[in-house]
Amino acid sequence: MTSYKKTLRGMTVLGALLAATAAHADLKVGIDLSSTGPAAVIGITSKNAMLMWPDTIAGQKADYIILDDGSDPGAAVRNIHKLINEDHVDVIVGPNITPAAMAALDPVAESQTPMITLVGSASVVEPQEGKRVWAFKMAQTDSAMADVMTRYMSNHNVRTVGFIGFADGYGESWLNEFSKFAALRHIQLVATERFNRTDASVTGQVLKVMAAKPDAILIAGAGTPTVLPQRTLIERGFKGPIYQTHGIATPEFIKLGGKDVEGTLFPTQPVVVARTLPADHPAKKAALTFVNAYEAKYGPGTVTQFAGDAAGVYPRLQDAVARALKTAQPGTPAFRVALRDELEHAHELVVPNGVVNTSAKDHVGLDQRASVMGVIKDGKFTYLSQ
Fold first, then answer.
1. Least enclosed by CB within 10 Å: which of 23, 107, 307, 330?
2. What domains lie within the chain, and their CATH numbers?
3. Secondary structure (DSSP) of 43-93
4. How far, in Å, CA of 248 to CA of 268, rounded?
5. C-alpha span between 58 and 49 (Å, rounded)
6. Could you report how far apart the first and last alpha carbons of the chain are, in Å?
């Protein structure tokens, strides 16, 4: 055998070995969450849901690498650089706070790595151009939540609303979206006040809002800090309906709020009210299956919307990876591009928090089937209306 033929044969064997290795390469999923710090109430339940994921995705062995950013956008970016440059992941999941997700857009776009975020703000994926084409989002948008909330208000004769919101991006986003849909439904915003997550008193803001004599009051915040303005409203004698945002749907809110949060009206996603959803809701089966499994593992009443969003990432990946594998193998730039492309083509995909239909213009894919109104009744989050 000539030297040339030996070399050619060696190259053929090497190529076959490399192809076989690529065909069995693990799918690497890099995950950044706020498991500690101010956003830990979100990150911990998201992580809990991810720890329930199967160890394969579309038949491919999956390697999950979970890092904590401590609720710090700078740490989140460092984590994402590590996941991309050192761990060579095929996809990023997270972050779960908006500032971190916005900061992550640069490294994921530069490396052409798709990212599925767990934040509420649509600013991470809209408009769908430039670096945002590499970002996807699981949670329903503030806009859709404001839509279902103002529809409910209008149907129940609320004509004037007082607003008390976080003095940050969350509060600003909700003020903008609520104002837009309130105007559409001829609901007048008669007072606007802000408060900080760490405030010990909001009496001044509450008295100013009550002085405007609104039919209802909206508290736009997330987690346990939103109990303070609601408790103050009750103590000061406000008798009208109190609305909160989807950010309250954690067991801690009910535990801290007690009787003062009974009757709270809020928009949410199917997982939070899974057991009381109508039988014909398209996500009820998926939501209830997840809730039962989650609470069997972590305890009754522990599920959150954030856990539901995290749970939905797995079927999103399962769906897209199955198609991307027809084009390329994990561990390659071609696979990351193919996965990004296929994440745009979910069709009527049922996840615990809704039904997903994505496109090149829509990297969320949730419609009104992912938005419902809930009420706190007998110390539980309960379905109220579609």
1. 23
2. 22-140+301-370 (3.40.50.2300), 142-268 (3.40.50.2300)
3. HHHHHHHHTTS-SEETTEEEEEEEEE-TT-HHHHHHHHHHHHHTS--SEEE
4. 9
5. 19
6. 76
